[in-house]
Every structure is written in structure tokens, then in C-alpha cells.
Amino acid sequence: MSSIDPTTTTIETEADSASAPPDVRHGVLRRTFRAKRAWIGAIALALITLWAFVGPLLAPYNATDSDVLAFGAAPGGGHWFGTNDIGQDVYAQTLVGLQKSIIIGLIAGPLATLIAGFVGAIAGYFGGVADRVIVWVIDLLLVIPSFFILVLVSPIFKQLSWVALVVLISVFSWMIMARVVRGQTMSLRERDFVKAARYMGVKPLTIIRRHIIPNVASLLIIDATLGVGAAIIFESTLSYFGFGIQVPDVSLGSLLASYSNAAVTRPWLFALPAATLIATVLATSLLGDAFRDAIDPTSGANRD
Amino acid sequence: MAGFLLKRLLNYLALTSVATVLGYLLVSSTLDPIARFLGRNPPIPQASIDTTLSRLGVNPDTPLLARLGNWIVNLVTTGSLGTSTRGTEVTADIFARSGTSLRLLIIGTILGAIIGIAIGVWGAVRQYKAPDQITTYASFVVLATPVFVLAVLLMITATAINRTTDSQIFNFTGEYTPGLSGGFFTLLGDRIVHLLLPTISLTVFAVASYSRYQRSAMLDVMSADYIRTARSKGRTRGSAMIRHGVRVALIPMSTFFAYSFGLVLTGASVTELAFSWHGMGEYLITSIRNNDINAAAGTILFTSILVLISGTLADFLYAALDPRVRV
After folding, report:
1. How far apart are CA A124 and CA B54, in angstroms?
2. Does B187 share its domain with B231?
3. The model's pTM
4. Of A48, A175, B11, B246, which is least surrounded by CB within 10 A?
5. Do B296 and A152 count as a contact with CB atoms less than 8 A apart?
6. Which alpha helices (DSSP H) does chain B contain, by range?
7. Chain A residues touching B303 at Cβ < 8 A
8. Does any domain span residue B28?
9. Which residues of B266-298 are buried (b: 16+ CB within 10 A; e: fewer)?
10. Residue A1 has pLDDT above 50, yes or no
11. Peptide bond into A267 cis (omega under 30)
12. Where in the sequence is the domain holding B208, given as residue range(s)?
């Protein structure tokens, strides 16, 4: 989830939004939604989520029953996405997979951001040995690609539930954001309001919670939003190669894996669930990018 | 600057060693080398399983740290990474497979970087105009697509084209057609045909991410004071952009390129798997599926050495190109 790229997140120390009082933060929302793609992203995301959770109630077939009158049917009639070889409705299956993918994205993305926020803030605030150790651990975790590490540990979480997979995805995707937060914290530490709190004897962890985290909140919101889409892609790729979600659970990735062989002869089996996946990720990234433009003074609309 | 680079290199060396050791421990504790021998008919005697596992150095009866020690001693004294479960030398496997990965990836990576940088500059110069909007949204769509989805969609399209033209224009399984006989040009042509789809897939993703990076680096530079100075000196906008803009914006891109080029051999495992190329990424995945500890540990060592090389290279380029970094 290296969603925030290092070239655009060099926020200056004087960045106004970093110390924004509440009314200016409302300005952030207003500025975000001045961009058309923020509306597209937000509305699409809301509709897709609604569709995933309400859609199955309105669908004519459920995901597991076989329709003996339609084996391997093309889209049409009651089966909007067609059926598979044993007559199961692909539309209903897509919605079940979409539910799981959305839940995974919504947990794993923000969880990774949470880890990044606290680890980065602790490294930046305390400095010294703590900082060195944390930076070194971050570098170490970046040496081997996360995809490889997750494939390596997959024999472990295959026996556990999908929740273990979600946690592991977050555990291996917070590193780059933690670096950004660390840099921000190092400059915030020298600001007057943090110094004042320190001299008043406020405990370090309280300062981090009350003064540091709220001031990097905007960065964290961007990362969490973009992280949702990144986690969905990560999970679907793992599941596609059999290292992610295991039966009986279904996600869009494992659904696509089971239909990729039939894709050449009956493209809709693959293309329609794939389009659903792309639309979901695209909605989160449009929203996240609009947030970034509104918050980050060095990107997009705020440049002169 | 030499001191700075030396310090970075030592740091990378330490990271590589620790990552390899941790990787070996992780692989040894998650993979189950006995699984391959169980459930066979007729059953394999325990003694012969033990002999095989000991010969590979992966017998779980030996303490984990002793196995690690043997592996390291073996690596340092003979340069060997042990034997895979198929009886081949892991070092030889890695050399053969990294060659395959390199042949698969080199064109797509370079092509993607060049096109991506050009589109990024174009988008930044025409900010908010139609070309910028179109390329921005297109790259959003590409980056929202998982690699395997694009691979399968390309295969569907290629098959459809093959069928309608009733020919074999696209041939996309593996690196070459096994058993094909013919002259040098027949074989070369066969390889090029096999390269077509994976290269398109790699190029599309590289273009999408490079153009985003380059656009943002270029926009940073365009609002800088020295561009205004160049303009007020009398340079035209285009000339100021090229002489002072693009050249500066390329500095962060060159380190990005150095870094991603180092990771190229392992970075496209999904593409390799999707198009059935027997490269490094596929090697790691199959070794995990076969519970092959030596092969998986060797791949991790190889990956971390590549990170070491590309990281040092990126640092060196950054220090060499950007005078502000020289300390």
C-alpha cells in the first residue's frame, strides 16, 4: 500500500493545513469536493457498497443453488452475469465476493494506516535509539517484496480464517507511510504548541495522541482511503494464485481465479466480476486522490 | 560523497544479511519438507525419507539453528545454495531463471519508462487541459486494475483475434514453442511473438506509474524560481521547460528507475505466473508449493542482494546527479 508516493508528499513545515483549526479543516472537505472526481469516487463507492450488501436480497438467484435449466448460460434472462458450468448464478457470486473484498479493503487499509501513524509518530517524536531501530526495521521489511512474504507465510494463515489474512496484509503494508509520518513528526516536535505541552509536563504518549496524530490526520486520511483500494488489489492477487482467501470463503480474487480458465471461451465469466473489481478500486483511488489534492499543498490544485 | 556511499553500502549489507537469515528461518518453519513423501503408495520407508531430507539439509530432526549454520557455512565455503527437491543445484536454477526474467522484463521496463516520462511531462505542461485529463484518468483505470486481470483480458483479446483471422498471430504461453525446429530467424520470431503480450502488459503498468511520478515531479519543478529566472532572462517557455525543467525533474525519476530496474528480476512475478514464464518470481512460488526450502531460501537471498545493488545504485545516482545532496 505504498499509495502515497514520496515525490508528492514533501509537505513543508509551514503547511497551513498541518495546524489547521477545525473551521479550516471543513475547508479541506469543501476543497476536496470541489473536484469532480471526488464526487464521482464518493458516489460510486457508496453505490457499490450498497449494491454489494443490498443487491443479494433483490437478486433472483442465490450464489450456491444450481439452475438445472441453465448450465453455462450467457448473460440474459434471470442470470444477469450468466451462469457457470453447474448452473450457479455468477451475478450472485460476484456480489458475495464483492462483499468480502470490500470488507477486507475497509479493514486492511485503515489498519495499515493506524500502524503507520503510531510507529511513525513514535519514531519521529522520540528520535535517538527508538528512531534508528524503527527506521532499520522499516528498511528490513522493504528488502523482500510484501507479496513474497505473504506467499511465504500463506501455509500458516491458510489454516486460520480470512481475518488472519487481513491482519497480515496490513502488517506488511504500513512501512512507506510510517516514513512519511516520521518526517512530519520530526518537524512538528519543534513547533511551539508541542514544546509548550512538553514543558507543561504532558506525557509523551499523550502528546502524540493529542497533538501529533491530529496534525498528521490529513495525511493518514489520504493513506487510509488509497489503502482500501490497494488492499483489495493485494488480496485479489494473492487469492488469484491460491495464497489468499480459502474456500468456503469467496472474494473477487478467488472468484476470478476459478473463472480464468473459462475466460477464453466465455469471456463474461471473467470480465464482469473483473469490471466490478476495477470499478471498486477506481472509486477509492479517485476519492483518495481528490483528498490528496485538497490537503497536500505541493500537489494538484494548490499549486500556483 | 565516497564516505556517504560507503556508509549506505554497509547498511545495505547488514540489511541483506539479516533479511536472508530471517528469510531462511521463516521458510524453514512454514514449509513442510516431509509432506512430499507422505501419502504415497507404496509408502516410502521412514529411513529413506530421513536420508533424503538430511542430504538436502532440511531434516526437521536437526535443530533449526544447526541447519541455518550448515546452510551459511556451505554458502560461504563453496558458494552453493544447496540442492532443490528436484535434485538440481539452486545456484544454477537461479542463474537460468534470472536470465528468463531479464529477457521477459527488459523491453517492457525500458519502453514503459520512456513512454511514461514523455506522457508525464506532456500532462504537466498541459495541466488540466484535455491531454492531461485523459492520461490522468487512463492511468487511474490502469492502476486500479490488478496485473492478472489485465493479463487475462489480453489473452481473451488475443484469442479472439486469432480466431477471427484464423491464424496464430498471438502465442502467449511460455517463452517459446517447445520442439519448434527451424533456422535462427524462425526461432527468434517465435520468441518475439511470445514476448508480445507480456511486454504490452508490463509496459502499460510501467507507463501508468511513471507518468504519475513524472507529472508530479515536473509540476514541482515548474513552479520553482529558477524557471521564472530562465523565462525572465528571455528563454521561451518551451526552452526553459526542457533545459531547466525536464532535466531537473528527471533526477528523482532516475533513482526511481535504478531502484525498479534492480527489482525487475523479482518484481514481475505475477506477470510471469500469468503468462507461464519460468522466471524468478515463478521459481519462488513453485518452490513454496513444492515445500522446497533450499530453493525458496536461495530466492530470498537473491532478492535481497538485488535490493542491495539497486539501493546502492539509486543512492549513487542521486548523489551524482543532484548537487544539493552532496554533503
Report:
1. 48
2. yes
3. 0.83
4. B11
5. yes
6. 2-30, 46-56, 64-78, 90-125, 130-143, 147-165, 184-222, 225-232, 237-240, 247-262, 264-267, 269-274, 280-289, 293-321
7. 143-145, 148
8. yes
9. bbbbbbbbbbebbbbbbbbbbbbebbbbbbbbb
10. no
11. no
12. 91-321
**Residue B264, C-beta contacts closer than 8 angstroms, at least 6 positions apart:** B101, B102, B105, B106, B109
Same domain, B142 and B246: yes
What's the pLDDT tens digit per position in B190-234?
888 888 888 999 999 989 988 888 888 888 788 788 888 888 888
CB within 8 Å: B304 and A144: yes
In this structure, the dihedral spanned by the alpha carbons of residues A67, A68, A74 and A80, taken in order and rounded to 10 degrees, is -20
Kindly state the percentage of chain B with pLDDT values over 70. 96
Domain boundary among B47, B78, B109: B78
B110 and B161 belong to one structural domain: yes
Asked if residue A166 has pLDDT above 70, the reply is: yes
Predicted confidence (pLDDT) at residue B85 exceeds the cutoff of 80: no
Angle at B282 (CA atoms; ends B99, B265), nearest 5 degrees: 40
Helix (H, G, I), strand (E, B) or coil at A201: coil
CA B91, CA B69: separation in Å to the nearest integer? 18
Predicted confidence (pLDDT) per residue in B121-164, tens digit: 888 888 888 888 898 889 889 989 998 899 888 888 888 888 88
Name residue A219's amino acid.
L
Asked if the Cβ–Cβ distance from B300 to A153 is below 8 Å, we say no
List the single residue in A with minimal CA-CA distance to B284. Answer: A148
Q: Do A7 and B220 touch (CB under 8 A)?
A: yes
**What are the distances in angstroms from CA B130 to CA B125, B126, B133, B216, B242?**
12, 8, 5, 17, 21
Task: Tell me what pLDDT residue B204 has.
Answer: 93
Is pLDDT of A7 > 60?
no
Which residue ranges make up each domain of chain A? Answer: 45-299
Q: Is A248 on the interface with B (CB under 8 A)?
A: no
Query: Is B43 among the domain residues?
Result: yes
Where does a domain end: B78, B104, B130?
Answer: B78
Residues B113 and B236 in one domain: yes
Residue B213: CB partners within 8 Å, gap ≥ 6?
A5, A7, B116, B120, B252, B253, B256
Same domain, yes or no: B228 and B315: yes
pLDDT at position B274 is: 85
**CA–CA dist A69, A74 (Å, integer):** 12
From chain B, pick out residues whose CB is under 8 angstroms from the CB of A299: 216, 219
Please say whether the beta carbons of A156 and A95 come within 8 A.
Answer: no
pLDDT at B265: 64
For domain A45-299, which architecture applies? Answer: Orthogonal Bundle (1.10)
Q: What's the whole-number mean pLDDT along residues A109-115?
A: 93
Q: In this structure, are B70 and B203 located in the same domain?
A: no
- Binning pLDDT at 50, 70 and 90, where does residue B314 land? confident
Residue B245 sits in a domain whose CATH number is 1.10.3720.10
A264 → closest Cβ in B156, B213, B267: B156
Structural domains in chain B (count): 2
Tell whether B34 and B102 lie within a shared domain. Answer: no
Please judge whether B23 and A144 are an interchain contact, meaning their C-beta atoms are less than 8 angstroms apart: yes
Q: What is the pLDDT of residue A27?
A: 67
